[in-house]
Amino acid sequence: MSGSSKKMSGKDNSVIIKKILRYIRRYMHLVVLSVILAALTVVLTLYIPILSGNAIDIMLAGKGAVDMNAIGLILIKIAAAMVITAFIQWVLSSCNNKITYSVVRDIRKDVMDRIQRLPLSYIDSHKTGDMVSRMVTDVDTFADGLLMGFTQLFTGILTILCTLGFMLITNVYITLVVVCITPLSLLVARFVANRTHDMFLEQSKVRATQTALIEEMVGNQKVVTAFGRQDAVKGEFADVNAKLSKASLKAIFFSSLVNPSTRFVNSCVYAGVGIFGAIYAISGGITVGQLSIFLSYANQYTKPFNEISGVVTELQNAIVCAGRIFELMEAEPEEPDKADATELESPKGNVELKDVAFAYTPDRPLIDDLDLIAKPGERVAIVGPTGAGKSTIINLLMRFYDVDNGSVSVDGNDIRDITRKSLRTNYGMVLQETYLRSGTVKENLKLGKPDATDEEVIAAAKAAHAHSFIKRLPEGYDTYIGEDGGSLSQGQKQLLCIARVMLNLPPMLILDEATSSIDTRTEQRIQKAFARMMEGRTSFVVAHRLSTIRESDIILVMKDGHIIEQGDHKTLLANGQLYSELYKAQLG
Questions:
Q1: 397 and 453 share one domain
Q2: What's the pLDDT tens digit per position in 500-533?
Q3: Element (H, E) at 423
Q4: How many C-beta neighbours within 10 Å does residue 130 have?
Q5: Are residues 379 and 263 in the same domain?
Q6: b/e string for 517-536 if b means 16 or more Cβ within 10 A?
Q7: Which has more pLDDT, 250 or 255?
Q8: Residue 355, CB half-sphere, CA atoms under 13 Å: how many?
Q9: Are 448 and 521 in a shared domain?
Q10: Angle 246-252-258 (CA atoms, 0-180°, nearest 5)?
Q11: Do 367 and 484 fall within a single domain?
C-alpha cells in the first residue's frame, strides 16, 4: 500500500522528521557551527540599533552642541558591525549550503543503492517516471525546503529570542505589549500550514503522474506517431497538466495567505509599540533614543515571523516530498543471499527445474509443475505461443524471480543456496530488448569484462559480425553513443549486445530472441558464430523463428506454462502436433 495515497498525520510527519534528522546528524559539527554563526549575526544585527539609539540620545542631549567625536566613534562601530555581519553571513550561507547538499547527496546515494537492491517484481509493478520523479524532483524540492529551513529558521528563532532579551533589558512594559500581540502571528501561520499540507501532497502525486506520462510518451514516441495517437496523448497530457495546475494553484494560493496575514499582525505590533512607546517617552519613562531602539526591535522581532511562516509552508512541502522519498527507500529489498550461500565456480552446466510452480501475481498462475533437465553442453530451445512462459523460465534461471514451489538447480545445487552474483556471472545473456549505456562503443562492449584488451574486444566484435559497422562509425570503437544506443539501428544495437557476450564467454548461455532485429544474411553468419560459442556450454535459446533452432539438442514446446512436447527437430516434426503446426505455418 502506497503511503503517499494516505492522509499523512502529525505522527507521520514526526517520523519523517526523525529520519531527516538522522541524515543531518552526520554533519552535526556544521550544524553547531551554523547555529553559532547565526547567533553572532543576530547579536551584531541587534547591536546596531543600540548604537543608533545612543547616537540619537547624544544628539538630543547636546542642546545644539553635538559631541561629534562620540558620534564618529559610534559610526565606526556601526560600520565595523555591518562588515563583520556581512562576512559572517557569507560563511553561514556556505555552511548551510554544505549541510543541505551533503544531506541531499547522501539521500540520493541511498535511494540509488536501494533501487539497485529492489526485486524486479517491484520495478515491474511501479512506473519508472514515478520513481524518477521521487529521486529527482522530490529530492530537489526537499533540498529547497531544507536549505530555507537552515537559512531562515535558525536565524529567525534566534532573532526572536535575542530581540526579546534586548527588549526586556531596555523596558519590560513595552516588551509585554509586543509579547501579547505576536502569538496571533504564530496562530495564523499554523492554521494555514495545517491546511496546505494535503494540498502539497496532492501536488506532489500529480507531478509524479505527469513525469511518468512524459517519460512513457517520449520513450515510445515512434509507436505513438505510427498509430496516430498524438492528439490522444496531447489530450491525456492536458488533463494531467490541468490537474497539476489546479493542485499547484490551490496549494500556492492558500500557502501565500500566510505572509500577508502575519504581516498584518506584525504591523499591529509595530503600531502598538509606537503608540505606547510615544506615550511612555512623553511621560519620561524612556528616552527618544530608547524609543527608536524599540521601534527597530519591534520590526526586527516581527520580521522573522514572516520568514518563519514562509519556511513552515516550504517545510510542509519538503516533508511531503521527503515522505515519498523515504517510501521508495524503505521498499522491501530483494531477499539477501543466505548467510551460508556458496559461490558458483566453473559449473559444468547441469541445469534442472523440478516441480516448478510460479505466478507473477497469486491470482494468475503461469507455470505449474514444470520439469526440465539440461545436461552439460546441451542446446535447449524453448518455443511456443506468446504468453506460454518462455521468458519466465529465463527469469527463473537467472533468479530474477524466485519459484513459488519446486526448485531450480545448477550442478545439483539449488540456486537459492548460491550467491546471485556468482550465478549470474556464469550466465551470458542476450535479450531481444537491448541495453546500451551512454559511453563509447568500447565501454559498452567491455561492460561484462572491464579488463579486456583491445585485441579481445575486436575479436569479439568480428565474431559477432559487428566489426565492419563499428569501423564505419566516426571514431570507430571510441565513438560515443547516447543512451540506449543513440542513433544506431536496432539491429546494430543487438549486434553490440551479442559481441558483449562473446567477449565474456561464460559456461552457460541464454539467448532470448537474440537475432530478432537482424537481417537474414547476417543472422545466418551469427548463427554459425553462436554454434561455435555454444560448443561445450549449456545453452537456452528462446526463439520464434524455428529455422534458427533446428540444430538444438532438445526443443521444448510450451503452452500455458507446461511443456507439451519435447525432442529434437525431426522427432517433433514427425509427431505432427503444435511444433509441426508452428513450423509449417512459418514456412508457408
A1: no
A2: 888 888 889 888 876 666 677 777 777 777 777 7
A3: helix 420-425
A4: 20
A5: no
A6: bbeeebbeebbebbeebbee
A7: 250
A8: 4
A9: no
A10: 145
A11: no
